[in-house]
Write a structure and sequence with these properties.
With 438 residues, this protein is an alpha/beta fold. The protein has helices at 2-15, 39-58, 70-81, 97-103, 153-157, 165-177, 200-210, 228-236, 253-258, 265-278, 297-310, 327-331, 338-361, 428-437, and strands spanning 29-34, 63-68, 87-89, 110-112, 135-139, 141-142, 161-162, 182-186, 194-195, 198-199, 215-219, 243-245, 283-290, 314-319, 367-375, 382-387, 392-396, 405-413, 417-426. Bound molecules: 5'-deoxyadenosine and iron/sulfur cluster.
């Protein structure tokens, strides 16, 4: 989401006549886009700001700004105590950055952290300077109304609002014209998307028809109301990826209730079973929090057994980090000792690594369609990309280019990567057409 937001900010600044500096030392303005989701995200930002202070010492004309989720929470501390920052801009105030920059010209500080009920930046065409030129994010909604008890997002990013369908489709058409091959539709809770009669399913339907050679992913849906019609649509459309990120957070009913996640373990499990029934070969990933308030050993085991039962292909796993203003902060105690949180998290991670390795081993000998994203990290002679099921695959470069779809056969694996042998350059329609005939 922050990558997508930075691309909107790029657009606003370029429109205002600015250009991108090659390095921090030669910049007139440095903006740090921030995240508040966990303590360590904020720690990283503080460290970055301290680094920038050194540059500020040698360049007194430098303007430093903080954008995004940390803005509201720490605006006073940022400006008054630390004297590190000149402007502070919340996630709904990016259009105001040029005015704020003009205000600080004479050494004053400028702040706009107002949240909005309407702002979706729908009319702003993001300028993509950081991506790989092949896959891209498109924001479809902002904010969140779910109020999970551990989560600060509803407070930092405000109320949920959807971007008009037409503006989303226009942006996807543009990406397709520019040669992008993969789009991930983004929102804090994509299955709440609503624009008049249009739902998330009708949006995915319309998006997937724009270009059959551009494939689509989305992040993140909520397990409480995942629509069946979307599962059937994914099963039927070759360019809707067979991959669903479906955050569980925890595996016991008592914990889900404290987290204010309105589903039971049983309901969650039947949802993942249904996903696998309707979309054969679908890969599933999740978010998990270890050590939330009052977590017992039994509840921790509930999370472990849920993860084993589902057999996720990928998981993002975190230790609980208390956030001010959340319901958990106000009502519960962050009472799981740090070393127990750490131990539980590492049990969760090592079990997940084993599960991934086992699942990846079953892929050996199978064929996948991989979109080449670039050179492999480990070797210049290899390229890497993702399968439709969102697994990283590496294989010999031959004459493949970034943006090519390549049919590969999996020959080996680790818990995180499929090692493959390239078969041929192909297309989505050719690969899945052939698969259907076979
Ligand atoms: N502590 C740890 N993890 C959190 N997440 C959200 N809030 C917290 C928190 N306070 C995780 C959730 C969410 C993901 C984006 O971040 O798992 O799905
Ligand atoms: Fe946070 Fe829950 Fe909203 Fe996700 S659905 S952003 S975890 S409040």
């Amino acid at each position: 989401m922050n990558f997508a937001d930075s691309e909107i900010v790029n657009s606003i600044l370029i429109e205002d006549g600015m250009t991108v500096a090659p390095d921090p030392e030669s910049a007139d303005v440095i903006l740090v886009n921030t995240c508040s989701i966990r303590e360590n995200a904020e720690t990283k930002v503080w460290n970055r700001l301290k680094e920038l202070k050194t540059i500020k010492k040698t360049n007194s004309d430098l303007t430093v700004g903080v954008l995004g989720c940390m803005a509201e929470r720490i605006k006073d501390r940022i400006i008054e105590e630390e004297n590190l920052v000149d402007i502070v801009v919340g996630p709904d105030a990016y259009r105001d950055i040029p005015r704020l920059l003009a205000e600080v010209d004479d050494g004053r500080k400028a702040v706009n952290v107002l949240l909005s009920l309407e702002e979706t930046y729908a009319d702003i065409a993001p300028v993509r300077t950081t991506g790989n030129g092949v896959s891209s994010f498109v924001s479809i909604m902002r904010g969140c109304d779910n109020m999970c008890s551990f989560c600060v997002v509803p407070f930092t990013r405000g109320r949920e609002r959807s971007r008009p369908l037409e503006s989303i489709l226009k942006e996807i058409q543009q990406l397709s014209d520019e040669g992008y091959k993969e789009v991930t539709l983004l929102g804090q809770n994509v299955n709440s998307y609503k624009d008049g009669e249009n739902t998330f399913t009708t949006l995915m339907d319309a998006a997937s028809l724009i270009n059959p050679e551009v494939r689509f992913r989305f992040s993140s849906p909520h397990p409480k109301d995942f629509p069946d019609d979307l599962l059937y649509l994914i099963a039927e459309r070759p360019n809707l990826c067979n991959y669903i990120h479906i955050p569980a957070q925890a595996g016991s009913d008592s914990m889900l209730e404290r987290m204010r996640r309105p589903y039971t373990r049983k309901q969650y499990l039947s949802l993942t079973e249904k996903m696998r029934e309707i979309i054969p070969g679908v890969s599933l990933s999740t978010d998990i929090i270890a050590g939330f308030c009052g977590e017992t050993e039994e509840e921790h085991n509930g999370t472990m057994t849920l993860m084993k039962e589902v057999g996720y292909d990928l998981a993002y796993m975190f230790a609980y980090s208390e956030r001010e203003r959340t319901l958990a902060y106000r009502k519960f105690e962050d009472d799981v000792p740090e070393e127990i949180k750490k131990r539980r998290l590492s049990e969760i991670i090592s079990q997940q690594m084993e599960i991934q390795k086992e699942r990846n081993l079953t892929e050996i000998g199978t064929h996948h369609l991989v979109l080449v994203e670039g050179t492999s990290k480990k070797s210049e002679d290899q390229v890497s990309g993702r399968t439709d099921t969102n697994k990283i695959a590496v294989f010999d470069r031959r004459d493949f280019q970034k943006g090519d779809y390549v049919e590969v056969e999996v020959t080996d694996c680790t818990s995180a990567t499929l090692i493959a042998k390239p078969i041929r350059k192909t297309t989505i329609s050719e690969f899945y057409g052939a698969a259907v005939e076979a």
